[in-house]
Write a structure and sequence with these properties.
Number of strands: 0
Radius of gyration: 17 Å
CATH architecture: Alpha Horseshoe
Distance between the termini: 7 Å
Shape: globular
Oligomer: single chain
Number of domains: 1
Order of helices and strands: HHHHHHHHHHH
């Protein structure tokens, strides 16, 4: 399979996002980690993601956007999953504030996504990270009234990734504007995109470890074939 860039399919999504997805699932499980453990894990995930992106040669602005997206996802999941004093403490000092000195991800992350989508030559791994963060449930300013805008944004990211990879969209890339439907009667199954694996991981608690690992290690053939 040939791609529009020199990157191979598994390179698009950092392996470090596996632990990010795991933390999000834990926070939604009804049995979230302690405040101290969550902060410790979050700091380790940021360090791992930064190191992996630096090792792959990404410039500082790309790394900054990727880390900001990670922080936005964890912060929102923490505020929804923690209770009492732990939640209050996280709200006073969210991950994005400790990492970037900002506390406006509900608006700012979408501004950054829109800006990256308008680039003539997009940074595919960064778009994939944005898509994964949205697929894992980040809502930001759309938490109260989505009006389909967030879903359209996910579709735009999928489309941009496909176009940048020289793919044929029709009949190959998943349509995230509609609910995910599994039809067991179909004999031929198309490979799922990384965003599909993220969504399945978040929904299928019993298979979360396998789903996340498979998402991270599988190709994005369903998006770019």
């Amino acid at each position: 399979m040939k791609f529009a860039t020199a990157q191979t399919a598994p390179d698009l999504l950092p392996v470090a996002l596996r632990d990010t997805a795991r933390t999000v699932v834990e926070l939604r499980s009804g049995n979230p980690p302690s405040l101290d453990l969550l902060r410790q894990d979050s700091d380790a995930q940021i360090a791992a993601l930064r190191e992996e992106l630096q090792r792959r040669g990404h410039p500082p602005d790309v790394i900054d956007d990727a880390l900001y997206a990670h922080c936005a996802l964890i912060d929102e999941a923490a505020l929804n999953g923690l209770d009492g004093a732990a939640r209050d403490a996280w709200e006073r000092e969210p991950l994005q504030l400790r990492t970037s000195g900002r506390n406006d991800a509900g608006e700012e992350l979408f501004r950054r996504i829109d800006q990256r989508l308008r680039e003539a030559t997009p940074v595919l791994p960064l778009l994939a990270i944005f898509g994964a963060v949205l697929a894992l449930g980040f809502k930001g300013r759309y938490a109260v009234d989505e009006t389909g805008a967030r879903t359209k944004l996910i579709s735009s990211i999928n489309e941009r990734l496909s176009r940048a990879s020289g793919a044929r969209l029709e009949g190959n890339s998943p349509d995230w504007s509609k609910p995910l439907v599994v039809n067991p009667s179909r004999r031929r199954r198309r490979p799922l995109s990384p965003l599909a694996w993220v969504l399945l991981a978040a929904l299928a608690a019993g298979l979360v470890w396998l789903a996340i690992d498979r998402w991270l290690l599988s190709s994005i053939a369903g998006m770019t074939h």
